[in-house]
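I'm stuck. Protein, please.
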Amino acid sequence: MNERRTPVAEKSTSSLGRMLDVLDLFDDNRLTRTAEDIATELEVSLPTGYRYVRMLVEAGLLQRVENSHYTLGPRIILLDHYIRKADPVLREGIPVMRELVQQTGFDCVSSGLFGTQLLDTHREAGSTPAALAYGRGRPRPLFQGAAPKVIVASFAPAPLHKLFDARHAEIVRCGLPSEWSDFRRYYAAIRKAGHYLSVGELEPQLAALAAPIEKSEGGVWGAISLVLDTARLAIVDTDRLAHLVKDAARRIGDRLA
C-alpha cells in the first residue's frame, strides 16, 4: 500500500520550494522521471523543468541514467550517512536493540513517524533474519503493523481525530473501526497496554511486537519492534517478549531524556 501524498502543486509556492518538490516525485512506482514529466507534475513550463533538473543534478540530488531519464542522486546516500550518525534515537537505541536481539534471537526494528510517513530507521538482525518487504526509508502503511499502531496510539485526542477524518477510507480499508468513538477506544486500549502484537497484518508470515519510545514531555520518539515468523508464536512466551520490548523502549527513552 502506498502512502497518500499531498499533490506537489499544493506544497510550495517559492521557486526553491517548487524545485525541491521534484524530489517528492520519486517513489516505488516511479523510480525515474524525465524533465518533461517533472514539468508536467509541477505544472511549470518546460524550460523551468529543465532548469530545476540541471540545478539538482549539479547539487548531486539527481543523476541522469538512461534515455534522458533522471533518478535520485548519490548525494542523498551521503546525507543518509550523516542522518544515521546524528539521529539521537539510533545513537542511544542501537546498543539496547542489540541487547534485545541477543536476549531473544529475533530481529529488532526501530521506526518513526516523519510528517505523515511511517518509516523504519534501523534493523538489527537476529539469528535467523526475517525476509522483510520494508526497510529503512520505504514508507509503511500507517494503520497496519505493530510499530505504527503503538505510535498512533500515542496521539492526543485532537490529532487522532484529525487523522481519523483525513484518512477515513484507508482506516476502513485496513479493517479498523469506522466510527470515531470505536476508533478512539481501539487506540486507547493499545496505549494502556503499552505494546501491541500484530500477526500477519503487514506480511502474512510475520508477527511483530512493538512498544513506544516515550518522550519525557509527552508523545513518542518512535517505536521498537521484535519481528518473528508467525509459526514461532506457538512456542514463545509473548508476555515475556512484551516485557522485554517495553523495558528496552523505556531504557532508550530514559537515555534520550
